[in-house]
Structures are given as structure tokens and as C-alpha cells.
């Protein structure tokens, strides 16, 4: 198959677009990794629940076990929430970062002139 010929001006923009897609894919893979991390952290929940049920309600061990359980729940929930946010907003976040980088490059070019 013959590829359509592109002008010299559009080749850098096509390469930049491909690079952006690649970077967005990497960012989304990081979001998937957060889901994996949440699954690993959730395997510790039964231990924390068992420790909270063993301790007497009047002791400080109960308060410690309850705090550990809540902190583990927070870790799992934060991994899930940030995983969703990273996957959904990877492209706009990358565009924001690149816009700032483009502005810095333009500012440095003006200073050189």
C-alpha cells in the first residue's frame, strides 16, 4: 500500500501527535497500575478486620486496629480514585503540561532574540 505523501511541514506535527498518543498510553498504563496496587492492598483488609474483631473495645489495641483498618481502606480508595482520574484525564493533563512547555520555549526564544 502506498502511504499518502505528506509535506515537510506536516511531518513534525504527525510525529508529535504520535508521541503524544504514546505518552498518553503510558500515563493510562500508570492508572491501570494503581488499580493493581489497590487489589494488592485490599488483600491486607481481612487481616486488619480480624485484628479489629479480636481486640476488646475498651483497650487501645482496638483503637489501633481500627485506625489501621481505616488507613488501609483509604489507601485502597485513593488508588482507585486516582486510577480513574489518571485514565480519564491523561490527555488533557498532557496537553496542559505541553502547553506550559511550549510557552517556556517561546519565552526563551524571545530572550535569545
Describe this structure in words.
The longest helix is centred in the N-terminal third of the chain and has 33 residues, at 10-42. With 113 residues, the chain is mainly α. It is elongated and about 75 Å long. Helices cover 84% and strands 0% of the residues.
Helices, by number, come to 4
Task: Give the class from helix and strand content and strand pairing.
Answer: mainly alpha
Distance from first to last alpha carbon: 46 Å
**Percentage of residues assigned to helices:** over 70%
Tally of separate domains: 1
Note the overall shape: elongated
Using DSSP, what is the number of strands?
A: 0
Oligomer: single chain
Order of helices and strands: HHHH
Spans of at least 5 consecutive residues whose pLDDT stays below 50 are none
Strand content: under 5%
User: How many strands, which pairing sense, and closed or not: the largest β-sheet?
Assistant: none
Write down the overall mean pLDDT: 85
Report Rg.
24 Å
